[in-house]
Write a structure and sequence with these properties.
The structure is a single chain. The chain is an alpha/beta fold and 292 residues long. It has 11 helices and 10 strands. The chain has a 10-stranded mixed beta sheet with strand order 2-1-10-9-8-3-7-4-6-5, sandwiched between helices. The radius of gyration is 18 Å and the shape is globular.
Amino acid sequence: MSKIEEALNKAKQSRNSNGTDLGVIKSDSSSIEQNGLNHLAPKKIQTQDISTVNEIALMDNGDILDNKELSELKIIHSEMDDEKVANTYRDLRTKLLQKSQGKNFIAMVTSCVDGQDSAMTSLNISTAFSFDERKTSLLIDCNLNNPKLDSLLNMETDKGLTDYMENESIEVDTIMHKTGIKRLKMIPAGMSREIATEYFTSLRMRKLMDGLLARYSDRYIFLESPPITESADTRILAELCDYVILVVPYGTSTENKIKDAVEAIGSEKLLGVVFTDIPERPRFSMSKLFKF
């Protein structure tokens, strides 16, 4: 048993002793294994009318990446050869929708290890939501000191989040960029990144988040952020979110790092922990989601 698994077992025992249930999503299984959570059946999501579906389709005008290009960028797609990876993110999408009872939300993705970013996980989670023709997703790069989403998508952008925060004449639509992925748009970090904490605590930031969420009921928002244990900015961002997903790179996270991250997030917002970079083994998945 690895140190990470030992840490999670200890966390599980600690949580269970306080009356908190634990659920596990495994990508190599078609079922969701949950202790004490079997009564949480998937909620029925209200069917959208044809006009809404057509409106969503309009946002795909422009160049769309084909499956080969998505694979080269290590972005999941519905026809990829390794179904286990795509199914892992589908399972996470299901878990989020069950938790939110079908309502749209803001979720932050963060890591517990300095130097190990969560950008690829953020990108693939938001992509999984865009698989559904009735849903759209918006990915915002809030890792202002070390933005990665532009490069992961091979995009060249100008205006972004910080430009919007500094200039009230900039409209939000001008900082939302098409990604080449159906029904997924992205807001890059922007050009100026000197006073991130002031950005995230500002009234303009809160109004931006509220407006983005309220404008379309089919839009799900994901924030890519710095490691929670290393950045005060991330702890501030957590206050603006409904849920937080913690990324734990396999083999590089200590038990104390995981515990510190869990405590910083708080049990009321922590949806779960996603292991990444798990060594490939026969009959084992590439990643798992653990619910505290």
